[in-house]
Design brief:
Helix content: under 10%
Shape: elongated
Largest sheet: 5 strands, mixed
Order of helices and strands: EEHEEEEEEE
Strand order of the largest sheet: 1-5-2-8-9
Structural class: mainly beta
Number of helices: 1
Length: 116
Amino acid sequence: MTELATVPGVIPYVDHHEGPRRLLTLEIPPFTSNAVNYYAPYASIDGRQYVVTWGSVTFEIPADRNVHVSVHLLTNYGAGATSTPFASMILPPHSAPLRLAAQFTSRPQGALVPLG
């Protein structure tokens, strides 16, 4: 276990990686007043999916290689096909901590936007 993985509230990187690591904080605000009632947020790091809460969630990620990050909003509300908004990006190698905000609208594709 790395030093970053022992920080309270940080989800450790669980796949094999022996290089340096950094922190990634995702801000996932509800995009409508009813989103909390109808959607469950999921975050994925390099294909490993985590059920997370609305608000801030922090992950330990590799700092020396590309990392795929995505946020999905899953719902089973309604009959037939349901919308599952998503946002996705590839983070390039870097050593500094990073904070991203998930932004969703009425369209299925959202965005991950750097903060700060």
